Prior knowledge:
This protein is of the alpha/beta class. Helix content is 40%, strand content 18%.
Amino acid sequence: MTAILVTGGAGYIGSHTVRHLMEQGHEVVVLDNLQTGHRGAVLTPHFYEGDISDAALITEIVKKHRITAAVHFAALSLVGESMKFPTKYLEANTVKSQLFVHALVDNGVKQLVFSSTAAVYGLPTQVPIPEDSPTHPINPYGLSKLFIEQYLQMMDTLHGLKWVALRYFNAAGASEDARIGEAHDPETHLIPLVLQTALGQRESLSIFGNDYNTPDGTCVRDYIHVRDLADAHARALQALENGKPSGSYNVGTGQGYSVLEIVEAARRITGREIPTILAPRREGDPDVLVAQVDKIAADLGFTAKHSDLETLITSAWNWHSQLSC
């Protein structure tokens, strides 16, 4: 049994990954400052409320639990907020992550899986997007994550830290038993917004532009179920344990759904009307963002198994519905 430290384990993707790792028999320790996470989503008894930049706390956790690997989710992740407060994002995501990584290395932890993002690519030069595409982030959030990937490369060279960075596309869905799901404040992700509108918690859903170069004019995105994301993290940890070299991987499905496809599927699954209004396009929104997924399939043996549209929306609907009861 491996002892794994998960930062941000009270968050959406983090809590699902904690559960998955526990089901595999690992001892999982969570560190979260609960700024955006939820204490009730933490299913392990080993929980610490604190900051990733607290080297003394990291040292205490690593020594007490004999941590051998870490999964690093803790970060601010709102693109719009990052545009307004770039320094806040670089400090919280990049600077604090550097301090966290140093504390791990100083205490002998040499394996790290890092929660990165497709935002490191910026506006793609080709679709599906391969991992060797140019990385030109167009917002401070993506930049803050890219900086960490580059820093991890240096820490591998200097200290032998082995790492995997997982570049997510659009996370969605909830646990099969509706025990944990997606709850952000403010909520910015499409599927939760659609379902909140279905529940009457919002008057309508804003569709930002219908003149994109896509079949129905709305943006197309690659949606990956959070259960699949959790599996990708577990496979990345196992790859590092097996001696695989460090590197970055896309985590997606290789296909996309448009905004209108999501809305229509949600109407069918929920049986609700889901009113929509057309709003102006958002600056910097690409027409299509879809992952090329050959590399992660070949190296980590990962393919998405729960990311069909029906499962994505039904699992999320079951979770949101029981919340509103």
